[in-house]
Amino acid sequence: MVSDPTNETAIRERALNLLARREHAPAELQRKLLSRGFDADAVAAVLHDLEQANLLSSQRYVEARVRQGISRGDGPRKIQARLKQAGVEPASSAEFVDEAGDAVDWLAQARALCQRRFGEDPPPTRKDWARRARFLSSRGYTEDVVRKVLGGIPRL
Asked: Which of 75, 119, 137, 155 is deepest in the core (most CB within 10 A)?
């Protein structure tokens, strides 16, 4: 793929090109660079240099992804799952999502999302209630929030 997989200048150039588009988690950036055929040791050295220069930051990445998830209407579980998938340590992502959650009313956000999707009326049947519950769960909301948004399961 690349002519010299140990060329740190080429690795740095590619990494900066990716970082110019959006923030990346270090593990995510490492995967991308390794998939381009660069040497693992050279990639690790370049990533270390980028972190030292504050051009690559896990915290900035987590902050950006949490803001993005909240603006999309995702719940805390989905945001944490995406961070974990990107290679962010679960403890640090959970801590930041909890901090952001203090500023976000997850219940109001889930309620607004459900109303946009299904309208103002409560679910008329058990089947409709279950469909709405699956939708909210798939968006990363906890069972407690889902039950508060949808209310009791219809008897009919």
From this structure: 75
Q: Does 143 lie in the same domain as 117?
A: yes
Task: Summarize pLDDT for 37-81 with one digit per residue, the tens.
Answer: 999 999 999 999 999 999 999 889 998 998 899 999 999 999 999
Question: The tokens of 153 are what?
Answer: 């399961």
d(CA 92, CA 74): 18
How far is residue 77 from each of residues 3, 42, 96, 156, measured CA to CA in Å?
42, 35, 12, 31
> How far apart are alpha carbons 14 and 20 in whole angstroms?
10
- Rounded CA gap, 32 and 40, in Å? 11
In this structure, the chain runs to a length of: 156
- Domain extent at residue 64: 58-103
Nearest to 53 by CA among 15, 110, 99, 10: 15
How far apart (Å, rounded) are the C-alpha atoms in residues 101 and 117?
Answer: 23
62 vs 1, 55, 84, 123, 128, CA distance in Å?
A: 31, 14, 10, 35, 35
The pTM for the full model equals 0.80
